[in-house]
Amino acid sequence: MMGNMMPGTITTLKVSHESPFGYFLESGEQEEDILLHHNEMTRDELREDEEVEVFLFQDRQGRLTATMTIPSITIHTFGWAKVEEVKRGMGVFVNIGIDKAMLLSKDDLPPLEEVWPQIDDEIYCTLEIGHNGRLFVRLAKEADFWDIAKSADKSLFNKNVTGRIYRTLYAGSFIFTEDGYLGFIHESERNEEPRIGEKVTGRVIDIKEDGTINVSLLPRKHEAMGDDAEKIYAYMETRNGAMPYWDKSQPEDIEARFGMSKGAFKRALGKLMKEGKVYQENGWTYFKKEQ
């Protein structure tokens, strides 16, 4: 492609003539004029020699075509795009703001497909022209996020943040928050590995010198205690309100039965007792009668 006749760009072209399918736009140095299909128009009619702003892309046959719908994502700009389709072994198709979904190739995604974006996940990306001359989506790199990121201050400590995962490694996941902060989630601070584009909420556990944050997806102690208390209570329900465990049970027995530490078990049990739901006696824990 020469001049500004390049897919993935926004340009202004002059209307050449009408056809049964739409209007042809003068392409300058191109051998053939560029079709603006009726489906790609934002108004019903155009005039000959009128100049219109269009976005250029390729149709299924690889021919350069135009749309009057102007996307926020081009080969010169980044933006957030929603995933529309996932094709195993191929990649994911995303909506950049026009009718045609664009491919984010598997070559730009992790080898592990379990952490690929899923439908309705959102990725920060741009467009590039591949070796074959076709448009494709490219994920934003670290430097691209630095261009739009804000620097976090100490007041953010222990606050909840929500954001999208933009990179994932065995050692951890990288997040860009809705408030514009760059963060890292160490693998020890998550129960499972989030996927690229997934929206997650966690708490800030550290603010680094460079203004980035460390985030934990694990619940706070009092939140975990609520989950642990529910787990203990549900187990007791399966045993008619009695279990052979109490706050002096062996740590290994507690871990084997409930998958939690003795400290977490005692906190959760204390919560249930404080709420008047259970009591302990001779190495056992029982539901209160009114329960």
Automatic annotation (TrEMBL):
Tell me the PROSITE patterns matching this sequence: S1
The molecule here is called S1 motif domain-containing protein
- SUPFAM superfamilies registered for this protein in UniProt: Nucleic acid-binding proteins
| Pfam families per the UniProt record, alphabetical | CvfB_1st, CvfB_2nd, S1_2, WHD_CvfB
Residue ranges occupied by any S1 motif domain in the UniProt entry: 158-218
Offer an example of a GO molecular function term for this protein.
Answer: nucleic acid binding
InterPro entries per the UniProt record, alphabetical? CvfB_fam (IPR014464), CvfB_S1_2nd (IPR048588), CvfB_S1_3rd (IPR048587), CvfB_S1_st (IPR039566), CvfB_WH (IPR040764), NA-bd_OB-fold (IPR012340), S1_domain (IPR003029), WH-like_DNA-bd_sf (IPR036388)
Its family remark reads: Belongs to the CvfB family.
